[in-house]
């Protein structure tokens, strides 16, 4: 396989509680210590991307690394508690926030979305558990030759090199990677719930977190009061199996919007055709590019290949504000002006790489999905091609593999009230996935946000709807007409913005 396919896959893969009366028991044991159920918390600060930070209460809970050997080795789960702002009126059911990846840490993801949950947090405590293998919960991180968090060495050109990287990473970990699966994480969440002393919880899952939420609801149905699922991963889905076709379908919708606007269509023409031509040319002859590092401002040089273009295209497709730049930067690159594309690609890779614990990601995907993945020749002409499937199959052939329950991929059937959110242009979990999950949720409702990509918590009036739903646990009674005002993000027609 050509070198660019492996490098693209590396980028793409990197590239989601017995009752407590009115809520947690907040009595101080000692100065600065607060108790919630059986757990003692101390003040801490949670930090996330873009400099966001938030005050919280933190603790750890010791759990067995191998659930089948409770007397064996233990690992510590990092747990953060965000107390309800109306402590006197706090509800007894806390919110468990389940983040994406797989490989992201809840305590690191939360600061960026906290403003969207202001209504929710008035009467509900929020609990963040770094899933085992991520963040502060015994992270499983693979590092390349430069010491960067990565899923493969840059320049790896074939399955032997890719597999070798995975084998070396697994051997270097102070962990048994077989016990870092979604099923293990669900058992951890139940231990946390019991330790907090809450009879029921509300599950809020984003992207891969929706898989965790569904698996918890399957195993512990009486413990779930309500669910919010944003960017849904159906239980039936093998992660990675449809990424290539989903991206191309999303790009088709987004580029069609460009053609509908004269200022965009007249200037950029057929953006998809331009993207194909650019990737074909760079696949045959990568180019050296001088550009300004977006983080430091320093002048740098780097090699631009088809993998860089495809990786940036995929990651920008997640958010319409970023995708609005694609017609412009692809047009610039097609005309030989590559600096903007190269700088944006470096910015995305630098920000994303350290957010994913790739070892944990492999533990999840190799146990739960890899044996169900088969390269589809029909995807060879897509932006991603079969690179992601090929990468996972090569690495999972050597990665220590855990087990999944026989019913792991069975569709969820639950009477729990559920609010499902999808973005019209989502390139990884399209709206049809939401409809698929909704079929098993008689008390669920699916809202599709016009013009949006992957992740909807902070869009328009969604924060208000989140608060109302978790207060009433009745999705069907929500007045969601406020979402009618959510519109499309216009494409940039120049580096100063879009046409008025």
TrEMBL record:
Annotated AB hydrolase-1 domain residues: 94-457
Any one of the GO CC terms: membrane
Entry keyword set: Hydrolase, Signal
Pfam family, any one: Abhydrolase_1
Record GO terms (molecular function): peptidase activity
Keyword Flavoprotein tagged: no
N-terminal signal peptide: 1-27
Single GO BP term: proteolysis
InterPro entries: AB_hydrolase_1, AB_hydrolase_fold, AB_hydrolase_sf, Peptidase_S33
Family assignment from sequence similarity: Belongs to the peptidase S33 family.
Official protein name in the record: Pimeloyl-ACP methyl ester carboxylesterase
């Amino acid at each position: 396989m050509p070198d660019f396919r492996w490098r693209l896959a590396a980028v793409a893969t990197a590239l989601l509680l017995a009752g407590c009366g009115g809520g947690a028991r907040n009595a101080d044991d000692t100065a600065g210590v607060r108790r919630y159920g059986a757990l003692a918390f101390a003040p801490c600060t949670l930090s996330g991307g873009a400099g966001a930070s938030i005050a919280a209460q933190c603790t750890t809970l010791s759990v067995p690394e191998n659930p089948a050997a409770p007397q064996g080795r233990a690992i510590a789960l990092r747990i953060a508690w965000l107390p309800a702002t109306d402590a006197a009126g706090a509800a007894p059911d806390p919110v468990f926030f389940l983040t994406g990846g797989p490989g992201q840490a809840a305590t690191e993801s939360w600061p960026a979305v906290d403003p969207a949950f202001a209504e929710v947090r008035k009467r509900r405590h929020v609990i963040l558990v770094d899933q085992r293998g991520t963040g502060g919960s015994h992270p499983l991180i693979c590092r390349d030759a430069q010491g960067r968090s990565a899923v493969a060495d840059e320049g790896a050109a074939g399955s032997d090199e890719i597999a070798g990287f995975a084998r070396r990473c697994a051997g270097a970990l102070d962990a048994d990677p077989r016990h870092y699966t979604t099923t293990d994480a669900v058992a951890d969440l139940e231990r946390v719930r019991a330790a907090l002393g809450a009879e029921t919880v509300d599950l809020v899952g984003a992207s891969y977190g929706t898989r965790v939420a569904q698996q918890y609801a399957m195993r512990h149905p009486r413990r779930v009061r309500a669910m919010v699922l944003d960017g849904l991963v159906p239980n039936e889905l093998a992660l990675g199996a449809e990424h290539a076709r989903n991206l191309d379908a999303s790009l088709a919708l987004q580029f069609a919007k460009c053609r509908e606007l004269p200022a965009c269509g007249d200037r950029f023409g057929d953006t998809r055709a331009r993207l194909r031509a650019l990737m074909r040319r760079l696949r045959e002859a990568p180019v050296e590019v001088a550009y300004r590092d977006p983080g430091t401002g320093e002048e740098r040089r780097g090699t631009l290949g088809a993998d860089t273009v495809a990786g940036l295209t995929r990651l920008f497709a997640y958010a319409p504000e970023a995708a609005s730049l694609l017609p412009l930067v692809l047009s610039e690159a097609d005309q030989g002006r590559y600096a903007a594309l190269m700088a944006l690609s470096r910015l995305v890779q630098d920000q994303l790489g350290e957010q994913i614990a790739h070892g944990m990601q492999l533990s999840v995907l190799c146990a739960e999905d890899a044996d169900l993945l088969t390269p589809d020749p029909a995807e060879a002409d897509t932006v991603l091609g079969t690179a992601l499937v090929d990468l996972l199959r090569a690495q999972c052939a050597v990665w220590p593999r855990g087990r999944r329950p026989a019913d792991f991929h069975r569709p969820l059937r639950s009477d729990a009230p559920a609010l499902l959110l999808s973005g019209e242009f989502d390139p990884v979990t399209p709206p049809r996935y939401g409809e698929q999950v909704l079929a098993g949720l008689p008390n669920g409702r699916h809202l599709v946000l016009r013009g949006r990509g992957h992740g909807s918590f902070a869009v328009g009036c969604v924060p208000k709807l989140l608060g109302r739903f978790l207060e009433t646990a009745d999705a069907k009674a929500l007045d969601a007409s406020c979402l009618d005002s959510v519109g499309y993000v216009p494409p940039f027609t120049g580096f100063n913005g879009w046409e008025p």
